[in-house]
Amino acid sequence: MNLDIMQRLVSDKLFFFENVLRIENKRSELVPYKLKPIQLDMYQTQTGRDVLLKPAQVGSTTLWMSVFYHDCITKPGTTSVVVAHEEFITQRLLAKVHFFEKCTPDQLKPRLEHKSAYEMTWPDIHSTFYIGSARSYVFGRGDTIHNLLCSEYAYWPDTAKIIGPASDRVPLEGKLIIESTPNGEDNDFHDLYKAAKQLEEVGGNRFKAHFYPWTLEADYQLPPDSPYALARDRYTPLDLTAEEMELARKLGTTEDQIRWRRMKIAEKEQLRRSGEMVKLFSQEFPENDESCFITAGDMLYDSFLLTELSRSCYKAPDYLHGAKVWQPPQPDIKYELAIDPGMGINTRTAITVWQFWWDGDVEYGRHCATIVGLIPPVKTAELAIDLAKFYNHAMIAVEANNHGLAVVSELKSYGNVYRRKDIVSGKLSYNVGWLTTPRTKPYMVKEVAKMLPRLEIHDLDIVSELRNMRTAGDIVGSVGSDDLHDSVAIALVCRQSKPGRRGYVGSAGYRW
């Protein structure tokens, strides 16, 4: 073999993959290993600490095993570890690495030893490749791990017993890749992914969150003449539903992809058991990183409605006055700004801007802008006043409990603030802000639930926190962050609206 080619095979992984490795495609054919778009993006955007939220069957595990294998045979002293979620999968994965080794020219591959059914060792260069199961609780407690892949992490039975000791052995320059398809919200993968996204916004993330919708996978499409397409869809152009047109606008889905999507949804609908689908399309083939996390537990708000809201979300087109802005202010429109204050150290502050209006006897609301982050009270008041002035001198409603007291004191210079009403007389008092208490909380969530079908929200983080809310009898709680949720609730209970039914609504006020 030419020396220049040998050197390039060692130094250029992509060249090595395409010219040395062979994989079996979905038609059971052996083909050169050329990375697909999702795999290529995973490889090119890796940071060394990555959380990958992906569709099913896109070759993520194969990618990282090929990367780890190349490191093992070209970098002496490398230890690579892959942890699968099920025991039986480990044998299949190790067989794939063995096949990589057979594809490798003799001039490139060191002498191989097999120490066990789960281990490959190259003793002359002191490199090792382990593949184990997440059910092996002591796995990863040995030497330094230069490459660690946690595969289908959302399905691990107990993450803490293995990820803790294993991740401690990955050096700063090593790779720690955590990848999975979604598996609901009540697991460590969901929490890790969400935390990585939130901390990235405030510059405190160690892991980088990556999301890959199914539309990036080239295999997921069907032409009109495909025998696998639904009989009713074997024509062109397809008549698209409103949902499909929105999907095409946001993700650029083609007609062939829509045809494939309809086939998969129909397939899953026909796999119902006791009225429940075996697997839902949005979980195995995510379209955004919110609706794909099929909810576990009793959701406080309508899950179908929240899924519909999530589909209408998009990245804020503007960033003004410190806020993500979806709807800029319009002349002669009244707005409200609601604040759920945090400490600014370990609890977040959430500020949202809203417009409310009536069309006949029906009330509607529109979210306009968001500020969220670790913001101290004085800075919170400054940002809120600037943003309120931008929105036509909007009324500011702030939660006056705990951290909110410091914010209230800083808002004295701004005249248009929400003031509580006297419970008996109904007159406005001098007390600024809303009080969230065990007695007023039920009213707050009731107002959110009542108005939710008529709210326009394009901020995915707000929808995510609405999905976090759970109920167990009379107890309301959250499985994640709830700062934005509480800001929404404060906006709704403090809105200047058409009078409704008279009555006591909690220690924060009285509705007239």
Topology:
Elements: H1 3-11, H2 13-19, E1 22-24, E2 30-32, H3 37-44, E3 49-53, H4 60-74, E4 79-84, H5 87-103, E5 113-116, E6 119-122, E7 127-133, E8 147-151, H6 160-167, E9 175-180, H7 188-201, E10 208-211, H8 242-251, H9 255-269, E11 272-273, E12 276-277, H10 281-284, H11 303-311, E13 318-320, E14 323-325, E15 336-340, E16 349-359, E17 362-373, H12 377-390, E18 395-398, H13 404-410, E19 419-421, E20 428-432, H14 441-451, E21 455-456, H15 460-468, E22 469-472, E23 475-478, H16 483-493, E24 503-504, E25 510-511
Parallel strand pairs: 3-9, 3-10, 4-7, 4-8, 8-9, 15-18, 17-21
Antiparallel strand pairs: 1-2, 5-6, 6-7, 11-12, 13-14, 14-17, 15-16, 16-17, 19-20, 22-23, 24-25
> What is the helix content?
25-40%
Number of continuous helical runs: 16
Quote the beta fraction: 15-25%
Number of domains: 3
Helices and strands: which structural class?
A: alpha/beta
DSSP summary, beta strand count: 25
The global form is elongated
Q: Under the CATH scheme, which architecture of the largest domain would be assigned?
A: 3-Layer(aba) Sandwich
Stated plainly, the CATH topology of the largest domain is called: Rossmann fold
Question: Gyration radius, to the nearest Å?
Answer: 27 Å
* Biggest sheet layout: 8 strands, mixed
CATH C-level class of the largest domain:
Alpha Beta
> Residue ranges: pLDDT <50 for 5 or more in a row?
273-279, 498-512
**What name goes with the CATH superfamily of the largest domain?**
P-loop containing nucleotide triphosphate hydrolases
Adjacency order of strands in the biggest sheet: 5-6-7-4-8-9-3-10
Q: What is the mean pLDDT?
A: 86
Instruction: State the distance separating the first and last CA atoms.
Output: 88 Å
